Amino acid sequence: MPRKGENIFKRKDGRWEARYIKGYDVSGKAKYGFCYGKTYTEARNKVTVLKAHTVSADGANVVKSRQRFSYYCDKWLEQHKTAIKSSTYAKYNMILENYVKPQLGNYHPYALSTELVEQFKAELLMERGLSAKSVRDILTVLKMTIAFTRKQIPREMSDIEIIYPREQRKEMRVLTQEEQEKLVQYLLSDMDFCKFGVYLALTTGLRIGELCALRWSDISMQNRTVTVSATMQRVKNFDSTSEAKTCISFGNPKSDTSSRTIPLTANVAALCKEFMPISPSAFILTGTESYMEPRTLQYRFKRYMENCGLEGVHFHTLRHTFATRCVEVGFEIKSLSEILGHANTSITLNRYVHSSMELKRNNMDKLTAIGF
After folding, report:
1. What is the DSSP string of 318-357?
2. What is the pLDDT of residues 43-91, one digit of tens each?
3. Which of 47, 270, 312, 356 is most buried when burial is the number of CB atoms within 10 A of its CB?
4. Closest by Cα among 70, 82, 93, 94 to 148
C-alpha cells in the first residue's frame, strides 16, 4: 500500500517503485514517469528530485499544462473585466459562453490548430447560419484568447492562422425624400417627447443608445448644440444577488470619437425651446427623470413606421438617411464624419453614404458642360 498522498509502491521483486506526473498529452491525460529504489526512502528521494527537475525544466508548474482552453478563456475575460466597458464585457462573455467554449473549450491548448479553427468557422457559417460579421466578431475574440493562452503555458503552441470570412456588403435602407417628408409630417403632428427624440435622431444622426441616454442638460440653447457623452444598453446582469437576467447600463459612447458636439438646425433648436422641461436632468425621450430604454423605443418606432406605411425601416435607417442627405446637399465630408462620431472619413464614405439615383443623375448631367 502506498503511503497517503504518495504514489510509491513496493513491487513483487522487492524494489520500490515511485510514480510521478511528467506532463500531459493534448487530451489532458497525465503522462507518468517511473523511478526505482531498493528502499522506500531511496525511491522517494529519487522521485522528489525528478519532480523538481520537471518544474524547473518547464519554467512553470506542470499542473498548468493540464488546463483546458476554456480555463484560459475565463482567465482572459477576468483579466480584462476592469479595462473594458460593461457592454463590451457582456459581449465577450456571450461569445465565449455561446460559441467558443462549447466547441473549443474542452481541447487542450496544444491541440488547437488552424484546421480546427477552420472547422469551427465553417460550423458557425454553415450549420448555425451566422452572418459573416458575427463570425468575424467571434474569431476576433478567439484570436485574443489564443494570444493570451500562448503567454500562460510553459511550452510553445503551434502557429494558428485565423482566416476571417469575407463580408458581403449589404445595402442599407435609406429613406427617399418622399418617405422622409412623410415621416417628418407624422412626427410633427401631435408631437410628444418620444416623437421629438426620433426627429432629433433623424436630423443629427444619433445612435439609438445615445438618444436614450441623452438628457436636456446636453442641449445648449445658447450655442444651439447637442453634446453626446453617454450611451445606454441593456446587457447581461452579472450581479449574483439579483434575479434579473439583464440590466440597463449607462456608459461612454461607442468610441472616443463618438463623444462629440453636434450643431442643431434652426428648426430643431426651435423645437428644443418648445419642449425643454423645467428639470435639465430630465431625459430627452420622456421629459422626466425616468429613462426610456432602447428596446421600448424600438417598439414605439416600429409603430410609427406602421402608421406611416413605411416598410423595412429600422431605427438605424435614420442615421444612414441623415448621412445621405448631408452628402446630397454638399456637406464637407470631414465635418460629417465628426458629426457622426466616426474615427475616420473612410468609415463615413464606405458605410454611411448612399448615393441616390437622382444624385448620380445630377452628377452625370454635369458632364454635359464639357461635351459628353
Report:
1. HHHHHHHHHHHTT--HHHHHHHHT-SSHHHIIIII----H
2. 888 888 877 665 444 444 444 456 889 999 999 999 998 888 888 899 9
3. 47
4. 70
